[in-house]
Amino acid sequence: MKPLWCASITLSIVLLAEQARLKTVRAVQDAKAEAEIASLESKLTEQILSGDPAYADSLSDDYVLIRDDGSVHTKAEMVARFVARDPANRIEALQPSDLKIRIYGDTAVMNFELYWAQTVDGRHLGAHSRMTKVFVKRNGRWFMVNNQGTFLSAPTEVPGPK
Fold first, then answer.
1. The domain containing residue 93 runs over which residues?
2. Is residue 10 in some structural domain?
């Protein structure tokens, strides 16, 4: 009877451990997908700095940007901003660093630091933010669905572009 009892306990422990393992969610190592996201981020940065409205092609239709100040903006608002190209309100520099990309199947989460400089109502401001972006893959293409920033330093006056 004792061997049966030990085997039963051992089996229960193994089954509980396997059940716990199946409930764990972890990113998968996918160098190709990580490289695609890093490349897309580089492309988006270039498009933002150049004011290229093709930026919108990489945003999902229900894209949401949550800024450092808590304001929420839609894809339509972002497209309108690109079309307006107001010289009194423009992004002058974006320098992402320390990118961490995690892949969960057709979803990617990217965390990074961002130094940015922009003109706001004619004032030249710069700051550091911690960013989180979420991407989904549809029909072989990655789309950004969410972008959120948190200030690491408050915006301060910086020298304007030359």
1. 27-157
2. no
Integer Cα distance of 59 and 33 in angstroms: 17
Residue 37 lies in a domain: yes
Name the domain count of the chain: 1
53 within 8 A of 39, measured Cβ to Cβ = no
Q: How far is residue 53's CA from residue 143's CA, in Å, rounded to a whole number?
A: 15
- 69-92: b or e for each residue (b if 16 or more CB lie within 10 Å)? eeeeeebeebeebbeeeeeeebee
No. of H helices and E strands in the chain? 3, 7
CATH number of domain containing 53:
3.10.450.50
Whether residue 21 lies inside any domain: the answer is no
Report yes or no on 9 lying in a domain.
no
pLDDT digits (tens), the chain, 162 positions: 566 655 666 656 765 666 666 667 889 999 999 999 999 999 999 998 888 889 899 999 999 999 888 999 999 998 887 777 787 778 889 999 999 999 999 999 999 999 999 888 888 899 999 999 999 999 999 999 999 999 998 888 888 776
Residue 105 contacts by C-beta under 8 Å, 6 or more apart in sequence? 28
